[in-house]
Amino acid sequence: MSATRDVFGKLWLSSKAVYNIWFHPLRNFPGPWYTKVSRIWYVLRVLQGCHKYEIKRLHDEYGLVVRIVPDELSYIDPRAWNGIYGSVVYNHGLYPMEKDGDFFATAFGDSETLVGAKSAEYKV
Question: Which GO terms label this protein's molecular function in UniProt (predicted)?
């Protein structure tokens, strides 16, 4: 029973790695092979406290967009902000999607942060 479970476990891990590298929707984005296989390297870097420096190093090597884990991309270009966080189309116009002021007011109190800022206050 244990041997069968081990075989199926290894088969599942192998097939997941193959899927993540060659068939995943993010497969065409650049990044080293180990970032495409699993989150293990990322979790280790977070625990070591150096994940920000590692991601910066990956951007230096691979460019503005890097696949940092199987299902996550890192963007370093500020022009990507609108593409990621989107806009709302109504009345035949394109308007930025504003943050929920009630949520961010309670989350950060009276402190001024980029997270709580209005769109007009942080335009790139």
Answer: heme binding; iron ion binding; monooxygenase activity; oxidoreductase activity, acting on paired donors, with incorporation or reduction of molecular oxygen
